[in-house]
Amino acid sequence: MATDRPKPLPIYGKGDNIRDWLYVVDHADALLLVVQKGELGRSYNIGGENERSNLELVKTLCAILDRLQPKAGSGSYADQITFVADRPGHDARYAIDPSRIRNELGWRPSVTVEEGLEKTVQWYLDNESWWRPLQNRTGVGQRLGVKA
């Protein structure tokens, strides 16, 4: 993921918006479990019970990258963090109550948020030849959905 010129890592506001993070494989496994064993017509919230602020998450990602693929020269990827104006009406917190899927189907995430992030980062490092060409598509890198 190293580039010649470091790009800023923009974070809305102060980065204190909280989200419940879930490793993609855990999400897929939960969906399969609901299809196979869930009660027809019943809703199941899938949540990781891994709440982190956006800033905490980005700092964790930077630390993982610092370890797995250090920046050329010196410094941390966290040095690229910048704060940008928050979106109007941006929710401070998204919360998921996954108690039904946990209690009725016995599902829980298989990894912590940190483990899931490390697996995700490692996948991107190992598969750059697959995802790098996608960066040339129209609209990539542009903030979409801000115009009426």
Taking pLDDT < 50 over at least 5 consecutive residues as the criterion, the unreliable ranges are none
- CATH homologous superfamily annotation: UDP-galactose 4-epimerase, domain 1
Derived structural class: alpha+beta
Largest sheet: 2 strands, parallel
The outline comes out as globular
**Quaternary organisation:** single chain
The CATH architecture classification is Alpha-Beta Complex
Distance between the termini: 34 Å
The figure for the number of domains is 1
Measured on Cα atoms, how large is the radius of gyration?
Answer: 18 Å
Residue-averaged pLDDT, rounded?
92
H and E string: EEHEHEHHH
CATH fold topology: UDP-galactose 4-epimerase, domain 1
Number of helices: 5
Strand order of the largest sheet: 1-4
What is the CATH class? Alpha Beta
Tell me what portion of residues adopts beta-strand conformation. 5-15%
How many distinct beta strands? 4
What is the helix fraction of residues, given as a range?
Answer: 25-40%
Describe this structure in words.
- By secondary structure, this protein is an alpha+beta fold.
- It has helices spanning 24-37, 54-68, 99-105, 113-126, 128-131; strands spanning 9-12, 18-20, 51-53, 81-84.
Mind sketching the topology for me?
Blueprint: E1 9-12, E2 18-20, H1 24-37, E3 51-53, H2 54-68, E4 81-84, H3 99-105, H4 113-126, H5 128-131
Helix pairs in contact: 2-4
Key terms:
two-stranded antiparallel sheet; 5 helices; 9% strand; UDP-galactose 4-epimerase, domain 1; alpha+beta; 4 strands; 148 residues
Describe this structure in a few short sentences.
36% of the residues lie in helices and 9% in strands. It has a single domain (16-126), classed as UDP-galactose 4-epimerase, domain 1 (Alpha-Beta Complex), CATH 3.90.25.10. The protein has 148 residues and is of the alpha+beta class.
